[in-house]
Amino acid sequence: MDAVAGLGCACAGLVALVLLVVAQRLGLLYRLLHKVDAASPRHGGELVAEVLRAHGVRFLFTLPGGHISPVLVACEKMGIRVVDTRHEATAVFAADAVVPPWCHFEATLEPPWCHLDVTLEPLWRHFGATLEPPWCHFGVTLGPPWMSPWCHLGATVVPF
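Now predict its structure.
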């Protein structure tokens, strides 16, 4: 009888451990410990726009979509010009065309543009459609125009 009780306790402990691991993987424990301030009027788009403004970004080249609309609206409110394109590569080429590297970067050492690229498509679909490495399509590229080709070599974030 004692062996059955011990086996039952071991199974219950294993089930509890599995449930804790699943809850942690789903982020449920984080949500329980860190509550959202419902009274706050701010959202994540405003935070992103403030960071871009603090880095001196004047242009935002992006592919429009509902998942980044708060960022685009906040950038326009902060005076950052938003340029919508139809493809990620077009956004990078437009950034190269708008601000030549010898006009701005060498004089002020500030990044004049930002390429915001957040993709919610499956990796295989995006990879097949563009014939580019899938790791290029997540992140923010912040830097002078002559650094833009580095994004397409796999460096999604150019630090400044």
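The longest helix spans residues 2-25.
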